TrEMBL record:
The keyword Cell membrane does not apply. This is Putative solute:sodium symporter small subunit. Residues 11-86 form the Sodium symporter small subunit domain. It comes from the Bacteria. Keywords: Membrane, Transmembrane, Transmembrane helix. Coiled coil: none annotated.
């Protein structure tokens, strides 16, 4: 019986992996998509004195990454409370 994972544990890890996958897709879209692949298409839009593609490659991706870190921590705390595995 100790080898079996409870159903709640399976649901918890499904939610956790889904959150990680969503974060990775956003990360890839912003860093690789907007910063590299879509840079020529975004070159006509000006942000802070430079084009939007360059801004995403240099600063925008870093800001999005920081936002993803805070979002992940907030959402994982919420999931932990929901499944009763929080640290409090």
């Amino acid at each position: 019986m100790a080898d079996k994972i409870p159903t709640d544990g399976v649901a918890y890890w499904k939610a956790n992996v889904r959150l990680i996958l969503i974060s990775l897709v956003i990360w890839a879209l912003v860093s690789f998509g907007f910063g590299i692949l879509l840079r020529p298409a975004l070159s006509g839009i000006s942000v802070g004195g430079t084009d939007l593609g360059f801004w995403f490659a240099q600063q925008g991706s870093i800001l999005v990454f920081l936002g993803l870190i805070f979002f992940y921590a907030w959402r994982m705390n919420k999931l932990d409370r929901q499944f009763g595995v929080d640290e409090e």
